[in-house]
Amino acid sequence: MEQLLRHQIEKIVQLTDDEFHLVLSYFSFRTYKKHQYVVQAGDMAPNDHFVVKGLLKSFYIDDDGKTHILQFAMEDWWISDPQAFHNRTPATLHVDCIEDTDVYYISIDSREQLCAELQKMEYFFLKKTAAGYIALQRRILSLLSQSADERYHQFAQLYPTLLQRLPKALIASYLGVSRETLSRLAAG
Amino acid sequence: MEQLLRHQIEKIVQLTDDEFHLVLSYFSFRTYKKHQYVVQAGDMAPNDHFVVKGLLKSFYIDDDGKTHILQFAMEDWWISDPQAFHNRTPATLHVDCIEDTDVYYISIDSREQLCAELQKMEYFFLKKTAAGYIALQRRILSLLSQSADERYHQFAQLYPTLLQRLPKALIASYLGVSRETLSRLAAG
DNA sequence: CGCGCGATTGAGTAATTTCAAATCTAGTGG
DNA sequence: CCACTAGATTTGAAATTACTCAATCGCGCG
Question: What's residue A188's pLDDT?
Fold first, then answer.
């Protein structure tokens, strides 16, 4: 279970056993049940979560009460309210569990201490954040240039696992499409 | 002119004069004319650009030949093809100048050397990248939850300067709206 | 004066949403 | 093992939103 986190980090920087134990000492572990909230808008939410098992979503509820999904996170992915995490401000997003979930989590303060102590971890987080930035740019491009149909099929191809594990209504919300439209797309 | 870069960095980390000169030594300076390309899709594009003067855009040309603007950058902003920059792969985006432009630029290799030599710069780039990530999340949210009209008026309120300096057609492309629709929105 | 580019306007069309109702499905208690 | 309910999904039809295509307008510059 720890190995999942270690393997994730070692995709980018190599760690000795001692270094990994140091890293791990800055993280905490926690279990959540399906439907449980990890972050609620308004909370201080200074933690970033690495998913060991389960499935979560982060979402925003707009002025009309509609929810818009920003991100899913399954095993080996990270999830947080990035703005609340980095700026130490109250959360504007919610994060909750779609399945029973296990995570390692780290506060922004711990993360900065860890990076001060072990420089290569700062490099790791920089690379990870840059990769996230690139992924968001791709998503923006998809929203700008593709039809609902194209977005859905690209999602299905890119994340076949999520297609299985998620209710269609959540995929619709992620793609920015009504559930009725998505249903019609999925049929064709 | 150097001061603009120094000021930008010192929003996040403080530098001595010596440190700043070290930083500067890793950057190069260059001037571009209006309409000139800074990056072309297919090129190796290992540079990130800090704008001292001028205005640029990064954009993607899709399979139908339509262009979609990912980002504008004016004074005090950064621009690149992030994927090409971080992964050292050929560019998929174009970057060109909307006005005559002056930039400081740095290659990914130089940046990594600089960070190795001056640790706090890695912290700076991490914070900068995280801030960019948060901005992209906001844009995704706006694409998911707002109508063309709301997106336009939010853009106008957020970037009054860009509204002045940019042809409307480019704003339309950034917002994911046809120029005709944007024209009707801007009137009402 | 007239060209050329950016912006606007109009009319018809396509994509997607909304509202409403019907259908399906998995899990629960008897 | 079956009936039942809540939630998820599908279907239909009307209403909206935004797009496309085409024509026109406005204006700065040679």
Answer: 72
For the CA of B166 and the C1' of C10, the distance in angstroms is 26
A2-118 maps to which CATH number?
Answer: 2.60.120.10
Nearest to A66 among B122, B143, B145 (CB): B145
For residue A45, pLDDT beyond 90 = no
pLDDT: which is higher, B64 or B115: B115
pLDDT confidence of residue B10: 98
H-run or E-run covering A131: helix A119-145
Tens digits of residue pLDDT in B68-89: 999 999 999 999 999 999 999 9
Q: Which residues from A are below 8 Å from B176, CB to CB?
A: 143-144
Please name the member of A66, A122, A134 whose beta carbon is closest to the beta carbon of B122: A122
**Given this model, what pLDDT does residue A187 score?**
81
Question: What is the rounded (10 degree) CA torsion for B146, B149, B155, B158?
Answer: -80
Task: Assign A111 a pLDDT band (cuts: 50, 70, 90).
Answer: very high
Query: Domain ranges in chain B?
Result: 2-118
Distance from CA of A82 to the nearest CA of B (A): 6
Q: What would the two tokens of residue A1 be?
A: 């279970």
Q: How far apart are CA B145 and CA A143, in angstroms?
A: 12
Looking at CA atoms only, how far is residue A64 from chain B in angstroms?
10
Say if residue B158 is exposed, middle or buried (CB neighbours under 10 Å; 0-12, 13-18, 19+): exposed
**A168 touches A98 (CB < 8 A):** no
Q: pLDDT averaged over chain A?
A: 96
Nearest residue in B to A130, CA atom: B129
**Which B residues 152-181 have CB within 7 Å of strand C?**
167-169, 179-180
User: Cβ–Cβ contacts within 10 Å for residue B14, how many?
Assistant: 10
CB spacing of B60 vs A123 below 8 angstroms? no
